[in-house]
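Reopening this one. Same input as before:
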Amino acid sequence: MPSQSVFRKTLVRHPSVRSFEIVLAADAGWQICERRDGHTVQQHVADWHRVERVATRFAQDIAALQRDGWEELPN
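Same output, byte for byte:
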């Protein structure tokens, strides 16, 4: 069963790539993943309120990156 994406954005500013993703985990909860030029930070959370806080932080980080000239790639 493919994972269901709750949030997914990828931004680039050559040569750097940043991606942010929240997916529904197969074993309940959510898998949160942030990638920066090949470095990945992942965590599994079961609390929806924590997912909301991470999604808000992701949105703020993405807005700041876009102000700095990063461009969003289509998913």
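So the earlier flakiness isn't reproducible anymore. For the record, The two ends are 19 Å apart (CA to CA).
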